[in-house]
Amino acid sequence: MSTAFLLAQKNHQITIYAKAFTPNITSNRAAAFWFPYHIRNDRRGISWCQKSYDYYIQLAQQSETGISIRQLVKVLRKGVEEEEPIWIDFMPQGSYRIMASDELPSNIAKGYDVKVPLMETQIFLPYLQQQLQQKGVKLIEKEIKNFNELAGDYDILINCSALGSRKLCNDDKVIPVKGQVGLLSPRNNLPIYLDNEKPLYIVPRKDAIIVGGTYEERVETETTEPATIERILNNAYEVFPELKQQEVIGSWAGLRPYRPEVRVEHEEGTNIIHNYGHGGSGFTLSFGCAEEVAAIVDQLN
C-alpha cells in the first residue's frame, strides 16, 4: 500500500488487486517496528531503510496514523558472540547510542539505545487504506494467479505479491519464514526490547504486548505451537519479571516472504515492475522501495 500511496500522490490512476485487505492480512498482526532485519547483506537497503524512517518520522506527527517514535533497547548478553553490527550502517545519523555499562543489567555485555518508529498496524493500515480510497484508488479483492489476467487493462503492472511471487513469477528464491509470537495484555512504560541472538523481541502496543519470536525457514504452516509460545514468554519473563503479571491473551503465527535479495526492478520487455522479497523488513523498507518503484514509473512514462 505504500507504493500505491506514493503513486497516488503523483495523481496516477491506481487499482489494487489483493487476496485480502486489512484487517484480514498478515501485516495487520506484525510487530512492525522499524529495524533492518535480515536485509543487512543488501547495501541498497541502506537508502531504502533511511527513506522509510524519514516518512515515518513525518507520519508520526499525526496521531491518527498510529505511528510513534519509541525507545528500542538492543542487547548482547555476556558470553554471546556478537555478529558484526552491520545494522549500524543502516541507521539514520543520531538515531542510536551505545549505552554505558552502569545502564545495563549484570548479564548484558553491550546495549544500544535506539530511536525507532513503531507502526501500530491495527491503526496504521486502516489509516493508509482510507487515505488511498480518498484519493480514488480502487481496491479489488481478487487473487491474481497470472499476469495475463490483467493483460491490456493497465499501462503498468506493479507486483507486490510477497510470497505469491513464488508462483506468479516462478521465483524459487522466495521462501516462507515462519514467525510465532505470544500476546500479553497491554502495559505502559516499556521500551521495545530486542535480543537478536536469543532471539527475543518485546513490542508494547496499545492492544497487546507482542512477544517473539521464531525464524523458521521453509515452514508453510501458520499455526502456533504451545511449547514454543511458552518458551518465548519465559524468555521475556527472564528479562522483565513484571510481565508475569500480564494476562496471556493469545498467540499468533505468520509467514515472512524472504528472498536473499529484495527484487525491485522493471522486467525488461514487459510493463511489469517487481517489488517483493522484503522478508521481515517489510515496514522498514516500504516507503524506500516505493520511492524506487515511483522513479521507475517515471522513467517508463
CATH topology: D-Amino Acid Oxidase, Chain A, domain 2
Give Rg in angstroms. Answer: 20 Å
How much of the polypeptide forms β-strand, as a percent range?
25-35%
Q: Domains counted in the coordinates: how many?
A: 1
| Broad structural category | alpha+beta
The biggest beta sheet reads:
11 strands, mixed
The top level CATH class name: Alpha Beta
**Helix-strand pattern, N to C?**
HEHEEEHEEHEEEEEHEEH
Q: Segments where pLDDT lies below 50 for 5+ residues? A: none
- Count of helical regions: 6
Assign the CATH architecture: 2-Layer Sandwich
Task: Give the name of the CATH superfamily.
Answer: D-Amino Acid Oxidase, subunit A, domain 2
Give the overall form. globular
Q: Mean pLDDT score, rounded?
A: 96
Query: What's the total count of β strands?
Result: 13
Level of helix content? 10-25%
In angstroms, what separates the terminal alpha carbons? 21 Å
